[in-house]
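Predict both folds.
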Amino acid sequence: MKEKTLLKFSFTTTIVMLLLLTFLSMNLKPKETKISEINEKMLNEWVYVKGTVVDEKVMGNEKKIYVFIVQDEDGKIEVFYDSNLTLKGCTVKVLGKVFQYKSKLEIEAKQIEIIKC
């Protein structure tokens, strides 16, 4: 009887914890950061920025890399994304990791949400 009770308790606890982790992962995002506040101390950290796409370009021959220049009221930053969206002039929210390339801070986007186009 004890084994059966322990098994039920373990199973129930596992399900509850999985549901909790799923809920938290869907609802936890970093706080919105102004582009001018992004610095070297934030390398490899997740950021959430909001701004307008003022320019876009495609890099690479075989594997295309899409680069958007996102600007808010205080600064602008290059955002790399692996999808061929056309966003110039759109207001977007970008969730991504900060990285540095040739002494320049940039964001590798995981998610781009279009606010207004």
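Second protein follows, with its predicted structure tokens after the sequence.
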Amino acid sequence: MAETTDGVTPAATAGVLTEEQAFRLIAYLTSSAEISLHEPTYYGSLRLIDAASRLIGFMLEHDLPTAEPYLRELKEELDTKKVWSMWDREAYYDFVQAVPADVAAEMMRRESEAQS
């Protein structure tokens, strides 16, 4: 566990995942890595998008007053657009290429807001 600059380890309750949720996500990621050895290449991005959605779902089970609106909207978008990989691969690829910029913009917005 990480330590703060004063040498004190933050309380476990400060996290956004329970131990069970973390293990479920680890199990999903590791089993996805194994199965991706046998699947079409683009399934890897689908599994990563799905993992991000699962992580957001776990996070939303906790009190996140400043992040919740954005995360709820992002999860809905991830869950809606990940299925595009099955019938509109070009739109899916466009989405996968665009979503990191959207997340980065939200991170920058949050950082700017915190500095204000």
